[in-house]
Specification:
This protein is of the alpha+beta class. The chain has 9 helices and 16 strands. The chain has a 9-stranded mixed β-sheet.
């Protein structure tokens, strides 16, 4: 996990939003260990964002069996197709985004669909082959995102590869609202907040996470919606966030040139981050290759 101080950083721009404050800095903790008691007292009960010790989830079977380093780029990860191919016929939800460049503009379409897992595996492998030979992208650029796939909808074996961590089972009431897989390339999850506490664990690749305290995040979300005349819900990752003016407005506020951020955390394979209920966040894949995460919403 690349933290700035040591793996998280406060950041802000010269204009636009309230500057980062020392109070906000003290609200983010770096836990010294991953014990249930440390997590409960240091993060869960006070409801503050927390970074867990680097690589403390490395033992998850999914990290070992689902992914491997790319032979052509040691910093990139790819799918272990030999392990996942037996499940290729399983139906999974996918998000299909297509960008078509014309002489004057780029037209973008977004679609949520269900397809065999094998289609996603094949697309990932094709992207890795394209990167290896530096192919020029077609004017029609297509991306697939296996987003918010419930572990309970996977085969029993794949679900067992991601056992529920002890801090999810024992820190609170042990009530797991949902657990989900997120896999893709160059992915961005727009600014939103979760209806329950969230343990976010990186399985493969790298992601940058920007977080905002509840009042500031709400201010930013409302401003983005006003700019785009949007109507999406902050608590649900709806299609309106993934396309058009609302998507662009949210990305500009969080990731644009003059973007403001209170906290930024970089996570790598085996790293974990606790995001309390009500804290706003946006997540962006970093670098080439597959990026994959799992999260548990719990109480």
């Amino acid at each position: 996990m690349r933290l700035h101080i040591p793996s998280l950083r406060p950041c802000h721009s010269a204009r636009g939003w309230r500057p980062y404050s020392a109070t906000a800095a003290r609200s983010f903790v770096i836990l010294p260990d991953d014990s249930v008691e440390t997590f409960r007292k240091g993060a869960f009960e006070p409801a503050v964002p927390a970074v867990l010790p680097r690589g403390c989830f490395k033992a998850l079977p999914a990290i070992r069996d689902w992914f491997e380093h790319d032979q052509n780029n040691s910093k990139a990860w790819r799918l272990q197709t030999s392990y996942l191919s037996p499940y290729a016929d399983a139906t999974v939800p996918l998000e299909l985004t297509q960008h078509r460049k014309t002489t004057s503009q780029t037209e973008t379409t977004f679609e949520q669909l269900e397809a065999p897992l094998g289609h996603f595996i094949e697309w990932c492998e094709q992207q890795m082959r394209n990167d290896a030979v530096n192919d020029t992208k077609d004017p029609m650029s297509t991306s697939l995102y296996l987003a918010q796939v419930a572990l309970s909808d996977l085969s029993k074996k794949l679900e067992e590869d991601l056992p529920t961590p002890d801090i999810v089972r024992f820190a609170g009431r042990g009530d797991v609202y949902n657990a989900n897989i997120w896999m893709g390339m160059s992915t961005v999850t727009p600014l939103h907040k979760d209806p329950n506490p969230n343990l976010f664990v990186q399985l493969a690749g790298r992601k940058a996470v920007r977080l905002y305290e509840p009042s500031l995040g709400l201010e930013m979300f409302r401003a983005a919606q006003a700019r785009a005349r949007g109507s999406g819900s902050a608590a649900f990752r709806g299609p309106e966030m993934m396309q058009g003016d609302e998507k662009q407005a949210l990305e500009d506020l969080v990731w644009g040139k003059d973007a403001d951020c209170q906290h930024e955390v970089h996570v790598e394979s085996g790293d974990g981050l606790f995001i309390p209920k009500g804290w706003w966040h946006s997540i962006k894949g970093v670098g080439k290759g597959i990026t994959a995460s799992v999260n548990w919403w719990f109480r």
